Structures are given as structure tokens and as C-alpha cells.
Amino acid sequence: MFALILLLVFSSLALTVMSIYWFLARPANTVSTRLESMDPSLALVENNPLTVMAERVANPINRIVPISAVEAAKLQKQLLQAGYRSPDAATAFRAIQITMLIAMPTFVSLICYMLDRPLINLLVWGLFAAAVGFYLPRYLLRKRTLARKQQITWGLADAMDLMVVAVEAGLGLNAALNRVGEELKELHPEMHQELDLVNLEIRVGRSREEALRNLAERTGVDDIRSFVALLIQADRFGSSIAKAVRVFAESLRTKRRQRAEQAAARASLKLLFPLTCFLFPVIILIVLAPSIFSLSDLLFK
After folding, report:
1. Average pLDDT over residues 87-104
2. pLDDT tens, 28-58?
3. What is the Cβ-side half-sphere exposure of residue 104, based on CA atoms within 13 angstroms?
4. Is residue 281 part of a domain?
5. Is 222 inside any structural domain?
6. Which domain covers residue 221, as residue numbers?
7. What is the pLDDT of residue 55?
8. How many domains does the chain have?
């Protein structure tokens, strides 16, 4: 038993040192650098050592329990909205999920065995760790998706203001999208990447309507869906794009101000609990402490 513990400790330390070296000291090759410069999500998924290891571990299980086509399409759409555009993103995500589903109960069971816990505790904690290992990747993916949607929503208002200026200055819609994407590169990188993909799809031969619809599907933001529908309708019926974009930008600015007012109204309600639990007792204690001390001296003197 003591030899097994020593072997496990040595293996853990060795894997920890190798992981630190792999993530920090390993030199990046030329292909990884070019992928990361073109699209960070591709390099993050395809060249991540954790992803490669998880795929190797979970490939046999994927063959035994394959994912359905509907679930795969749904997962691919969720990963696309989270910013992972690699074709292997769904496979890598499911591999990580299955690996954590196996690794976490094994680790918890090993700890319970080393601490000499009863069998019922081992089973309970093992099932809890399996549930955490299964749902944790989906929770992190959902948080990543919501954060990215919020960043795109914040960048859309600035993009609309810039597009109004570009279109009214005489640029066409494609040139305006390209110019706005370049201007948002530093301030809103998520919006810059999406507009770059739209321009790239148009350059390789896709219609502008299809490229804009793909933008709405990739982001999953309701405001962008409305903006895409507005542009497609204005382009189809030949109406003024500059006037349509200006009206939409004004409505979007109003909506953003309303969201800010709503968040400010919620702030007072969110502050109520910490004020009640932490600040008010301290104030009451400070105010009443001299009286309590004086009363105690008077009664117990």
C-alpha cells in the first residue's frame, strides 16, 4: 500500500512537471503561430495538448457510444456561437467531456480509498464527481457563449455608428463592412472577427445575403439577426441602406441606454443582501457598543 501511494505521488508530480513544461516552455511551431494569428479559436482547439490527449483517451468510447447527428449539429452550433470554429471542435469537446466523466470519479474514488472511507461514501462521491465531470464542460461552454454574445452586443452599437458614417460617406455595403471590421480590431475583437468572416465569404463567391445569414447563425445575437434582416430587406427592395442603418443605429442606441438603466435599477436590489448581512450589523454594533459597555458596567459593577 505504501509503495502504491509513492508510485501515485511520483506519477502525479511527473505529470504536473510535464504539463507545466508543455504549456509554458514548449516552443510553438510555425503552423501553430500562423493558425493563432489567423483565428485564435482554431489554434486553441486543434493544437491544445489537453484536447489531443482527451481525443486519444475518448476515441474508443466515441466508437462504442457515437453521438447522434442532431446532437452533433446542436453541439457544433453551440461551439460556433462560443467562438470555436474548428471542424473538430465538437469531437474535441465530447472527448473532453467523456474524459472528465471517467477521470473525476476515478480520482475521487482513489482519494476515498486512500482515506479508508466506507464503500457507501465512495459510491456517493463517485456519482457526484461523475455528474460534475459531465455537466462542467457544458456549463463552461454556456458561460463562454453568453460572455461572447455580450461582447458582440456591446460592439454592435459602435459598429452601427461607424457604418452610418462609412455608408453616408459614399462607401458601398461591402466596403463599409470591411472598413468597420478594420476599425473595430482593437476595441471589439469579437465583432472584428465576425465581420472579417463576412467579408471573406463574400470574396470567395458567396452571396451577400448568405454571408449575412451565416453571421446571424454564428453569433446567435438577436440584435444582429434584426440588423441582418434589415440589410437583406433594404438590399432586396432597393431602399436606402444609409437611412435604414441610421434608423437601426438610433434604435440600438436607445435599447442600449434602456439596458443600462435596467442594470442600474437591478443594482440597488442586488446590494440589498450584502448591505443587510454585512454592513448594517457593523453599523449597529458601532452605534450601540458604547451604550452596551456602559450598561454592562452599571449592571455588573
Report:
1. 77
2. 455 445 544 554 444 444 455 555 555 565 5
3. 20
4. no
5. yes
6. 151-257
7. 57
8. 2
